[in-house]
User: Fold TetR family transcriptional regulator from Zhongshania marina.
Amino acid sequence: MTVAVSKPKRKTAKKRNNSKDQLLNAASTILTERNAIDISLSDIAEASGLNSALIKYHFGNKEGLLLALVERDAASTLGLLDQLLAMDVSPIQKVRLHVAGVVKTYAKVPYLNRLIHTLMDSKDPIVAEEMVNFFVKPLLESQTKILDEGLQAGIFHKIDPMMFYYSVIGACDYIFYARHSRKIVTGNSELTPEIRDKYINFVADTILKTLCIDSNTSIKT
Amino acid sequence: MTVAVSKPKRKTAKKRNNSKDQLLNAASTILTERNAIDISLSDIAEASGLNSALIKYHFGNKEGLLLALVERDAASTLGLLDQLLAMDVSPIQKVRLHVAGVVKTYAKVPYLNRLIHTLMDSKDPIVAEEMVNFFVKPLLESQTKILDEGLQAGIFHKIDPMMFYYSVIGACDYIFYARHSRKIVTGNSELTPEIRDKYINFVADTILKTLCIDSNTSIKT
Assistant:
């Protein structure tokens, strides 16, 4: 009897999770295709093939769904950032790996940065605070730790973390955001893994030339 | 008689221009306040105190109005870029002045870059092409000319204009776009002219360290 009762329960829970994932996947696909962050409940319902009432059931409202999407999409990246900080490599290598991580995240989820900033502009202060605590603070704190490590080791100049934050995140994001200019800029709208990796090296080299006291170190390591 | 007839005509023409400007100013204010590019005809009508039929009369539709807004907001900047190219200063100084121009434009019109990219994603190929021809191509061509000048003068390394374009424009724009993170990042949500100028120097110094063959030159000039 116990088995007979529990089986349908598991199935229902699985089905519920599936519809949650389906809604998140549909929103993600639409945001990527449109390269914009304006999306309606009916867009998501239509693309997922599910009733929009399920959005309310799982996420409360559209903002709740977008919040869940950001948390899903950014979680692995933020996890990698913690691992990076704990790694036994030089601060220079940490900057390189960090730039690579940011670029690869935006390559995979090109709407992520704009979605985060849209949610930070939310009229609901809880949503805005959630984004700050979930994304901006950990990112800024991790970057500051890497900069401090390099400073303590006598490898880096003292640099304003704010300048580092905006210039690195802005540069890493823009190549994916401005996708419709890519065909004009690069002659090809596809951002191949080769161009992506070349860009990672360019951004990392540029910032390391400013950071490193000995400019040769930045290239060697 | 001629005078009596022509006077009201001039008045009507002036009034027409006024309502056009009023609509553009209203859209500009809303976009700045919201830090977003989703805006409705009724939002603009309400904020301008004018009937939304006037939007159709002056601009055809919402996209037409946004296109006119971009052209109004970016025209002076693009004009300055032409002047910059013709100036008798070193390529290094041109890079510095260019970065300053871009940062100051986004400081003044923080929605401009996103609006341009939204219009480049337009379903209407004429709108998209207009943005490319009006903004991306002139900007990219001017940057390429400055890079070439430095290369010919034996001052700059050979650098991929695409890498230059995305990293510089992305860095310059992001500090204004991500305004809701500024309080966390800088402790103050106001971006003072002092911070703006410090950021201009940081971005210019960083890119010039990568560009210049002799790293000392980049700082001296």
About this structure: The domain at 69-220 of chain B is CATH 1.10.357.10 (Tetracycline Repressor; domain 2).
